[in-house]
Design a protein that fits this description.
The chain has about 110 residues and is α/β, with parallel strands linked by helices. Helix content is about 30%, strand content about 25%. It is built from 3 helices and 6 strands, in the order E-H-E-E-E-H-E-H-E. Helix 3 links the parallel strand 5 and strand 6. The protein is globular.
């Protein structure tokens, strides 16, 4: 059975991360954290299950998290989220696209 993971941030970067998670098949997405007015909406079929204020309770039952908040002008909010989650013993993950085989050698 796949481990569950919570995605923190529901915008465009979240959608790209959902694509990676689905392709790698390592995790089951438990839900997404976003703004309070977006709770109960869907992002690519996954529910927004809470907002930042709900994180402490949610990581008690699902400690695996991926910060999917995009970086616009400054990484400050992402760093703040990471430090808060890390201090609460959340397991912060990273994701990257799986390597794709090349059909032919690249020219030099």
């Amino acid at each position: 059975m796949k481990e569950k993971i919570i995605l923190v941030g529901g915008g465009g970067h979240c959608k790209a991360c959902i694509d990676v998670i689905e392709q790698t098949g390592k995790f089951q997405i438990a839900g997404i954290i976003d703004l309070s007015e977006k709770v109960n909406q869907l992002v690519l079929g996954y529910p927004v299950i809470g907002c930042d204020a709900d994180l402490p309770d949610l990581i008690e039952t699902c400690p695996n998290v991926l910060i999917t908040l995009g970086q616009l002008k400054s990484p400050a909010r992402r760093m703040e989220l990471f430090n808060d989650l890390y201090s609460r013993w959340a397991h912060c993950f990273r994701c990257s696209y799986p390597p794709w085989p090349m059909s032919r050698p690249m020219p030099r």
